[in-house]
Amino acid sequence: MASRENKVIAAAFVLFVAAFGIGGALGLEGPIFGALVLVAIPILGPQLYLATTGDDGVAPET
């Protein structure tokens, strides 16, 4: 079964590919769009999500 971290990483990858594809199709380019696609979605997004949701619902590993 996939862990919570793996699900978040998979979702970030899907969002990265979607943003990259949509941005390319619409002709979006520039430093802000590049930073969003290359840094915010695949790196900062998952880290911030995992930090804010915490580990309350996850059973400790033994």
Fold and architecture overview:
The chain is mainly α. The chain has one domain. The protein contains two helices and no strands. It has helices spanning 4-26, 31-53. Helix 1 (4-26) runs antiparallel to helix 2 (31-53). The model has no long low-confidence stretch (mean pLDDT 86).
Radius of gyration (Å): 15 Å
SSE pattern: HH
- Residue stretches low in confidence (pLDDT < 50, at least 5 long) are none
Mean pLDDT rating? 86
Q: Structural class of the helix and strand makeup?
A: mainly alpha
Q: Assign a percent range to the helix content.
A: over 70%
The outline comes out as elongated
What's the total count of β strands? 0
Strand content: under 5%
How far is it from the N-terminal to the C-terminal residue, by CA? 16 Å
Largest sheet: none
Number of domains: 1
Count of DSSP-assigned helices: 2
Summarize the structure.
This protein has 62 residues and is mainly α.
Q: In terms of topology, how is this protein built?
A:
Blueprint: H1 4-26, H2 31-53
Helix pairs in contact: 1-2
